[in-house]
Every structure is written in structure tokens, then in C-alpha cells.
Design goal:
Distance between the termini of chain A: 64 Å
CATH class of chain A: Mainly Alpha
Number of helices of chain A: 5
Number of helices of chain B: 4
Number of strands of chain B: 0
Distance between the termini of chain B: 60 Å
Largest interface: A-B, 37 and 35 residues
Order of helices and strands of chain B: HHHH
Radius of gyration of chain B: 20 Å
CATH architecture of chain B: Up-down Bundle
Structural class of chain B: mainly alpha
CATH topology of chain B: 3 helical TM bundles of succinate and fumarate reductases
Number of strands of chain A: 0
Low-confidence stretches of chain A: none
Helix content of chain A: over 70%
Shape of chain B: elongated
Strand content of chain A: under 5%
CATH superfamily of chain B: Fumarate reductase/succinate dehydrogenase, transmembrane subunit
Oligomer: heterodimer
CATH class of chain B: Mainly Alpha
Number of domains of chain A: 1
């Protein structure tokens, strides 16, 4: 015991597992969304309610399509990171891992579907 | 020496003994709005998929999203989105160790609550 330093004892426990990586990832995606969200709300909001032809024409334009694609990718990454924190706070043990894995599948799955759809609309 | 008394420490009092305050309520609402936004997000992804698939499928998804129920979800999502965005800005400010005193934190709390309502009304008017 006397040969173990405090640092060595802390390694792999608590926040020492991945340091501030999760916090920094959240911070990066939140700043990105701060820019993307207003653009998305007002482009998607303008399109919603239009006819099928109008939607096809609108989302074949580069700006609305790129904004939607970026918002979906960064948004679901941010959501998944946030959901992980929620689970880590309230659920422990096997269920904790299962829920994080499940929601990771949902998040990346939804982002993949969204990207495919926007690519198909835009091209 | 690091703490060796693992798992046998007294617990601090938690939620049930505190009176709800602006700070605690706005904090929990940040978490609730962020996670609830999954519903609206999945609806939007479905709407995009339907639009990319066929006119018939688009009619189904668009009909649902623009129905009274869809409108309700979208309206709630717009508020949740602005609330979560403003609350996020508050965290970005706090991360720099700014405005952490009670007075400033209280002001930021009201700014988030009132700001989210104002932005929601503006969004609904603009769209």
C-alpha cells in the first residue's frame, strides 16, 4: 500500500476513467448546436406544412439540406452524451450499461436514417 | 492520503428535504427538456425518411406531424428546444466561473424561463 501514490489509486475510478473528455465533447457539441439550432428551426419551420413537391424542391437546395444534416448528426451525438449522463446518475449496474448501449443504437440509428433521407432528398 | 473510508461515509441530504427553488427547478427542467426532445427529433427524422421514400408515405408522415397531436409535440419541442438552448448558454457562462453568485444565478434563471417563452412565441409567429 505504501508504494501506491494517490494518483495510482485514483486511476480508473470515477472521473479518472476518461477525465474531462465527456465534458469537453458536450461543450463542443453544445456550441455547435447553438449555431445550428436557430438555422434549423427557421429552415425546417419554413418547409413544414408545404406540399410534397415544395418539400422536394426546398430540400434539394444546399443550405437547408446541409443545415438539417449537420443538426441531425450533432444533435443526436449531443443527445446521446446527455442521455448517458442521465443514466449514469440514476441507474447502476447491468441496466446502466444496457440502457446506454440501447440509446446509443437509437441515436446513431436515427442519425443514419436522417442523413440517408436528406441525401436522397437533396441529390 | 486519499480517503480509505470507502462506502461508509455519511450521506448528505438530498432532493426530498429541500424546498424547490428557481435554481433547482430550472436545472431539472434542463435535463427533462433535453431528453424529451428525443420524441420530436424522431418524428422529424421519420418525416424526412417519408419525404425521401414516396409521395404516399410522405402524406402519412406529414399528416401525422401536422395533425393536432403533431402540432402539440412540435409546439412543445420548440419551447423545450429554446429552454434547453438558453439553459445550455447559462452552463457555458458558469463553466467560466462567471455569474455563480446567488443574485446572478437567480437572474440567469429568470432569463432562461422568460427568454424561452418569448423565443417560443416569436418562433410560432415567424413560422
Amino acid at each position: 500500500m505504501a508504494f501506491l501514490t494517490d494518483r495510482k489509486r485514483a486511476m480508473g475510478w470515477g472521473s479518472a476513467k476518461a477525465g474531462t473528455e465527456h465534458f469537453w465533447s458536450m461543450k463542443k457539441s453544445s456550441v455547435a448546436l447553438l449555431i445550428l439550432i436557430p438555422f434549423f428551426v427557421f429552415t425546417f419551420g419554413a418547409a413544414l406544412g408545404g406540399t410534397y413537391e415544395e418539400i422536394l424542391a426546398y430540400y434539394s437546395r444546399p443550405f437547408p439540406a446541409i443545415v438539417a444534416a449537420l443538426t441531425i448528426v450533432v444533435g443526436f451525438k449531443h443527445f446521446n452524451d446527455g442521455f448517458q449522463t442521465l443514466v449514469e446518475d440514476y441507474v447502476h449496474g447491468t441496466m446502466e450499461k444496457v440502457l446506454i448501449l440501447l440509446m446509443t443504437c437509437v441515436s446513431y440509428g436515427a442519425a443514419g436514417v436522417g442523413l440517408f433521407a436528406i441525401a436522397r432528398l437533396a441529390l | 492520503m486519499a480517503d480509505v473510508n470507502r462506502g461508509n461515509r455519511p450521506l448528505s441530504p438530498h432532493l426530498q428535504v429541500y424546498r424547490p427553488q428557481l435554481n433547482s427547478v430550472t436545472s431539472i427542467l434542463t435535463r427533462i427538456t433535453g431528453n424529451a426532445l428525443l420524441i420530436g427529433s424522431l418524428m422529424i427524422v421519420w418525416w424526412f425518411l417519408a419525404a425521401a421514400t414516396s409521395e404516399e408515405y410522405f402524406a402519412v408522415a406529414n399528416g401525422f406531424v401536422t395533425s393536432w397531436f403533431g402540432d402539440l409535440v412540435m409546439f412543445g419541442s420548440v419551447w423545450a428546444l429554446w429552454y434547453h438552448t438558453l439553459a445550455g448558454v447559462r452552463h457555458l457562462i458558469w463553466d467560466n466561473a462567471k455569474m455563480l453568485d446567488l443574485d446572478s444565478a437567480e437572474k440567469l434563471g429568470w432569463a432562461v424561463v422568460i427568454g424561452s417563452v418569448v423565443l417560443t412565441i416569436l418562433t410560432v409567429i415567424a413560422i
